[in-house]
Amino acid sequence: MNRRIYWIAGSVAAVLVAAVAITLTTTDVATGGGDDEGDDSGPITGEALDRASEAALAHTGEGRVTETEVDDEESYYEVEVTLDDGSQVDVQLDEEFNVVSDEVDEEDDEDDGDDNEGDDGPITGEALDRASEAAVAHTGGGQVTDTEVGDEESYYEVEVTLDDGSQVDVQLDENFNVVGDEADQDDDDDDDDDD
Fold it and tell me: What is the pTM of this model?
């Protein structure tokens, strides 16, 4: 009888150990852990997006978050902030959302920030505010993580990252009316240079 109890107890213990191992492995994969460093790059999502945005905007003192990236080559998080004058600052953050550096994007600054026609670049100035407001209203929430004027599908395109991490590209006409949207859950942007 004692042998049978030991055998049952041993079997239960083995099942518990296997369950814990599976849980830890699944958690590691789901949270992006493991030894595939460098393969986790993509937009910041969820609570991390809120915290990173807050830290970057506190650092710049103004502006709007227009793009984000996890596991950037320069830091753990990178937050691109478009300032009120249309210039952009990349704010680098560590895993605890502390600013480790920043860099002003040196792009063609001939534009005054409001006349976006033909730029094929990020939306800036008042147009950024209006396009972001229209896109977020259309998606019912989320955070603007990228913008483009002169998009091939519409006058403006606004990428909104929803709380679940999925992304929606919202196309707007020049009067900020929604003319289309497209769910982009794979994050296969053509600016992904890691492939």
Answer: 0.47
